[in-house]
Each structure stands twice: as C-alpha cells, then as structure tokens.
Amino acid sequence: MNENMNYPYENEREIDLIDLMFYLMKQWKTLIMAVVIGAILGSGIYVVKKKEADQKKTIDISAVTEEDTEEAIKNYKVDPDVKANMELAYQYRQLYRKQLEYNQNSPIMQMDPSKVYQGELKYYISAGYDTTLVKTLYQNILATDDILSELKDASELECEEQYIRELIGCGVSEDGDASININNAAGKTLEESSFTAKNVLITYTINSIDEESCDKMLGVIRSKVEELNQKCLDEYEDYEMTPINDSVRVIASSDYLSKQKSNADQLSNYLSNMSRLEGAFGEGDKEYYNVVYLSREYEQDEEVVETPVVEEVEPVSPVKWLVIGIFLMCVCWGGFYLVIYLMDRRIKTTDEVRSMYGISLIGRLRGKDVGKKKDWVCRLHERFQEPFDSEEYIVAAINAMGKENVILSGEMENREIKKLVETAQASRCKIEAGDSIRENCKVLEVAKNADGVIFIFVVGKTKQTEIQRELEICSIQKIPVLGSIVIE
Q: Which domains does the chain have, with CATH numbers?
C-alpha cells in the first residue's frame, strides 16, 4: 500500500516450479494410465513395423533362394520321360483348378435338377420379306454383354457374368410352308431361286434356382423385346409381333442332372490323373517339379528374370517402439496438465499472495485435511513448504499491531477461521469476523469504521480476480489492509 492507499499488484504471474512439479506428481494415477496407453501404442507400431520388415525380408530371401535354386535346378538332369510326365501332370493340375472353379461358381452345379424354375417368353413374328432380318435382331438380344450384366443384377446370383449365359437361351422355329421366293427373277429356274420364311416363332428360356430370380430375369428380357418391337414397328411396314407365352414353371431337368454328373466325374478324373502322375516322381524330381512348375507360373518360353538387389533389413526393436510410445504419451499427458495448471486462476502458493499483491503474510493455517491420512506426494510436498502457524500465534501477531478494531474478511464458513475467532475471543482480542467485503455491504460499512482489514485466502479456492477486486474496493473506500491469513 502506498501513501495514496493504492494496492499495486503484478500483472505478470510467476510460476513456482516446485509447486508445478508436485502438482504433476499428484496426477500419478493418470500418468500410469498414460504409460499403459503409450505401451499399447508402441506395441501396435512395433507390430506394424515388424510385419513390414518381415515382408521385405521374405521378398529378399525369396530373391536369393530363387537364384540359388535356379542354379541347382540347372545342374539337375531329368529323364525325358519323367519331364514329359511332369508337363502332363501340370496340365492336369491346371485343368483340375479350372474345373474346380467352375463346379464351385456355376449356378447349374448348385441347382436341384428335380426342381428347376424355367421361364419362357414366346413371340410370333411376321415381317414379310424382312422376317429373316428381324429374326436376327431378336436373336441378338441375348448376344450382348450388357444383357448379361443386367440379368446378373436382376437374379442376385453370386457368380460371374459368364455363368449367366448358361442359364439363358433363344430358339427359333420357322414355318416351312409359309415361305416367300425372294430371288425368283426372270430367266432363273426354281432350283436357282431361294426362299425365306414369312413368319417365325422366337422363344426365350431362362433357368434359375428360384421363382423370384427367374421372374426378374424374364422382366429384363421382356423390356428388351418391347424396345426392339417399337423400333421394328417404326422401320418395317409389314412387321407384326404377337406374344404367345409368358410363364414360369417348375420342371425336373435330366439335362442339368447329366451336366452335374459329367462335371463331377471330370473333376474326379483330373484329380486322379494328376495324383497318379505326381505320386510317381522321386524326391529329386519332386523338388524340380515344385520349383519349375508349381512355385511360379510355368511358361513355355522362359523369360530372363532380373534378380533384385538384396538390401540389409534393420531389425525392429520392440523396446525402441515401446519407449517411443510411452514417451509420446507422457509428453501429451504433461502438456495437458500444464495447460490446465496455467489456465487455473486460483492462487496456488503463499508466495503468490506476497509477490503478486504485496500483502503482508500474518500467518499460515493448515486446511481441513488436518488429521487426514495423506499420500506420499503430499507428505513429500510438505517438506518443501514453510511451517504452519498456530491460532495462538496469529492472534498474538494481530494484538501486536496495536489495533483496537480489526475485521477478518473472507471464508467465514471455514472451520479454521471459526477456531481462530474463538481463540481471539478467549484472549479478549477484539477481532470481528465477516464475509467478503465485495459480497456483504454490512461488512463493508463495518470495515470502513475499523482500524483495518485482514483478508483470508484459501489456496486452491480463492481466485486471483477476487483478490484484485477486494484490493480495489479497499483502495476506493480508503480501508487499510493490515495483512492476510492463508489457509492451505
């Protein structure tokens, strides 16, 4: 306080490194969590790095092994008859794989031959001299790749488009009696003339595993027929198209049963021949067969394969990535709590009251944790703090000021302050307790008539803005500030 009763305070805040250190130490439980998370993170990075290194190492080892194996294979002599059997066995293996793929993916192999859903669309078409051309246009509906894609989407079958072609068909029936001579020119005999049918029957068939998919596939073809029908009506004068049949029925297909049996027998035959030929190879022949025919794609014309340069792969250390993961998480943990510490505007130490606001310290009282069992961090922290004062000492210090009427302003609900007031009253010291000056007008009036005011601050609770406001009020109202009592 200067001669004008102003109470200057420092705008710049000093950070007590010891207090900050113990603040971080009190968060040791979350630090353990950060270490565990960091270890998990480091382990995850290690697994990824290890997998990448193993893949690279495998590629390098494969390159070296392939080079050594090729050198050994070049020096190995194979009997011509055995080599012929190797090529035959490899061909059987390729046929077996293709047949196996077909048996697994073809809808025909998955159908029940006794319950095949067959859809049929039949149309009568007549176009005079253009009947043959129109017939070809209708046959070409099923010849495009787009129709296969649309049929696959409509059927919702999980197979490739090439297998859809096995389920569809288009048949043409011509009326032989109803024909037109299109080359009956003058000077030509009947044998030299040619005839064309003037009406045909076009039949589309679709086979499927259930009625719903069969009906949807028929719908796709039906829409294509309607589009073509409209075009033909516009282009051909004598054109006429009449639907004859549009139905779905369940049939027992002996043809599908024969196909299933034939494909299964073919697969068994390929497997039997392949196993018989490969089983006859000796140990050296088997190694040669595996390297030349099975370990890579066999080509009739061998190409020169460049051997990749083998690089040294640095071993991946689990300890290194564990340490990195833990370190990164600890840095994040420390940064998080440092930001919280700096943004906290409450007073944290007794020195902060003296250095920032220039208020004399009358005494320090222990807070409400008296008698409470403290953890090791709090006990260690107390060794670096100033000793606490007793209530008797603080009362005596106030009496020594020679003031007759002193007001205590602050946390009156605090148990330590109540005990201090009781001690003062027992010693006949005239000390009056009141709430904060900025919150209670009655306390403000009493303080204006008193010899001075002593503020009570609680570490970790009283905010810096509250202290600044109290000092501003005292400066405006010309109230002397005798000092402060800090409760920790």
A: 17-107+256-346 (no CATH), 115-251 (3.30.70.600), 348-487 (3.40.1010.20)
